[in-house]
Amino acid sequence: MVDDQLVKEAHFQLSSSSNRRFFAFRWMPGNQPVKGIVQIIPGMAEHARRYDHFARFLASHAYGVYCCDHPGQGMTAGSPENTGILPHHRGWQVMLENVRALYTHIRKSQPEMPVFVFGHSMGSVLARHFTALYPVYIQGLVLSGSFLMPGTTLSILLGLMNMKCLIEGPDKKSRWFNHLFYWNLNRHYRPRPTLFEWISSERSEVDRYVADPYCGFHCSNNFYRQLLRGISATRKAERLITYRKSLPVLVMSGQEDSVGHFGKDAVKIHKAYFDERFQHLSLKIFPGRHELLHEKNKEAVCLYLLDWLEESLEVK
Question: CB of 62 within 8 A of CB of 37?
Fold first, then answer.
């Protein structure tokens, strides 16, 4: 456990270029100089406060942490009834603009501080899109629980969600589609008393996720449409940009993670960066499922990430 006196926590609101307000959270070292900042980008159907343990761990080792709640998630959603709903036409762009607004806030408040970006699951796609689209200087990029989607599958699903938005309405939360989505991730595990065994092999973590009204909620037709559009836009952005090849990149996954095809997608993502001749590239496959920061071995995961941050601070 981290002593609360070692960490200063706060939450606040920001506005992005879309003029939409969103909530952000900050954890800072309470009694030592800050070495660097980690900006966390959460995944879908979760919220920023789920990173409290990791953030406190980092803050106790002299790293500040910032994280925001996406539209339709956590405190930005405002209530469980509003979860899973995104703006109809620019939902992905709004999430992306919020990420940029938080990054800009960090830079303005601590302009000389090295900033790392940590994206989990859907947040890893946002992290890739953010670093490809905007000319920002970050110290390192961590992609956790990331995944790939074949172009044919992407096209078919996008066509389906466009049709569902047209027929049922963009804000409709389709029970059968959400159930199918979670079931497909969950079907690989036995026993499966809940739809969310794919989250973690730690029983208490899954139960906590299930009991949280701001986790595992049903997402709207438009949410899925925007996510699919975002995946497509990220691919295009990455083809058009030349990265700083000295950028440290860590791709990490759980060996039993059905979202990332049991570590196979992480290997493919790592190879794509390798083929682009990145100079400081790391791949780590841990025992565990999708959320390594909520796994049985989460302390080992945290220590590994801390070591990687320390090494990456030295990269120019």
Answer: no
